Amino acid sequence: MSPLTEKDRPIIQLLLSTGTCPRCVLRFCCVGSQMLYRHPHEELLKDLQKFLRNSHEEEGSVCLDVSNPPCKRLRLEPGEEGASDRNRNGAIPQLPPADDGNAATQSLPGNICNVCLGVLQEFCEAGFVKKVCQKVNSADYQFTSFVFSVSLPPQLSVRERAAWLGVKQQMRNLGLPFPEDDIIQLKEAYKWIIHPQLSEELGVPADGKSLFEVSVVFTHPETDEECHFLATACPDCFKPAKNKQSVFTRMAVIKALEKIKEEDFLKHFPCPPSSPKNHCDALEIQCNNGAVFVAGRYNKYSRNLPQTPWIIDGERKLESSVEELISEHLMAQFKADSFNFSSSGREDVDVRTLGNGRPFAIELVNPHRIHFTTEEMRRLQQAINDSSDKIQVRDLQLVTRSAIGRMKEGEEEKTKTYSALIWTDKAIQREDITFLDDIKELKLDQKTPLRVLHRRPLAVRCRLIHTMRSEYIDEHHFRLHLKTQAGTYIKEFVHGDFGRTKPNIGSLLNRTADILELDVESVDVDWPPTLAD
After folding, report:
1. Is the link from the previous residue into 179 a cis peptide, with omega within 30 of 0?
2. Residue 10, domain member (yes or no)
3. What is the distance between the alpha carbons of residues 415 and 28, in angstroms, rounded to a whole number?
4. Based on the domain organization, do 194 and 297 belong to the same domain?
5. 524 is catalytic
6. Phi then psi dihedrals of residue 325, to 5 deg
7. Of the given ranges (82-96, 129-143, 412-426), which has the lowest mean pLDDT?
8. In terms of domains, do 128 and 196 share one?
9. What pLDDT was estimated at residue 516?
10. Interval 469-480: pLDDT, tens
11. Which helix (H) or strand (E) holds 220?
12. Gyration radius from the chain CA atoms
């Protein structure tokens, strides 16, 4: 329970008389009691009226009566003056006597607040809370907590500034301080009211760190143009931005309000703000679950399968990809909207990935299902493996976003092992290739290969061949096992890429060499953790 003191009387009397709702009155009086805002609108209005009547009768501070049940609804006569008759030059209207009941004439229970445009009235009621919860429940999400976010129309900041200037002038006339920073923000007050109702209805707690977000977007078409004068007064604050339908964003408006002088503001906007005809509209009620990350290792056994969809000039070249064969099962089980695939390096379409496989991670965006047991993940892995003979997945598991960084860190630092089937134009004997086995830490200068120059910048990259081991097959073929620095272009090391990779197998053997087959035998990144079968 937060006390109201005698210095709050002129604020209460002014705001109620100009059409401000009781909860916004509490905000301007810097009342920080969350419980107080949750009391019914009519009860708060009567408590404020009671405070105005009793403020001269008691010394010191007076507390709002928040323990008594709501009393009968007061019969208040509507004011004779309409919103159009209010002063537009910033002058404070003449306040009526505190005990005649007229101070709250404009703040009748059915009237729409001239500051919050009904956000702290209509949208705090049980009916709207049920509407939000029905939307959440119909979306069929798994969640154990929620975070509630609100998007307010930017003109609310303009109206709040107008009301604040009126109160500021009134307090200045009375010789009382009124620090702006102490005003309770509208979003904060709204969440104080709505959080416990949503929590009770949904059966889970509100948590600012929750990954499940329930959001409401409010609009008020009737007053949309109230921000426009700021663009003339402060043009530097309103710059067109990508993905923004209007330059009048909330942050741009706030920036302009901080910049504009009081006298310029009062020339263009009524103070106090006029009462609207309609309350805000809840344009959108949306739910969104934070991304879930799944990691594992994949083996690729096909020489006709790209890692990601192969599309050139809008035309698909092959029917599937590693990414799609894995993700289609995850998307279905997690009921996600979309996904992002990443891996520790990539292999060409005609290269197999053997051994323990290549580490990968998939970000599942806005998943409706997020809880999976170890056994369920094992069955999901088996379903992926049963669906195709082109790939196999192992160590499939849920991971955190931060853990994926370990995969990327090892991408350039770790080593990779390859097996290459090589052809030579001139006949070779076993002794012609044995010297390759003795070469250690061979330094290469690799200019960006011609085959990837369309998507990689032109540069010369220094890479290392740590070790090589040769296997003679016949006069024109041998197999070469290589352990290399990550990022080494193996095909170019074999054929030289028209001299763009130096040295290369062709130059070392003094003959033309080409690569017929390439396999990745290991990717030495110790992630994700190996799981027991």
Report:
1. no
2. no
3. 64
4. no
5. no
6. -60, -30
7. 82-96
8. yes
9. 98
10. 999 999 999 999
11. none
12. 35
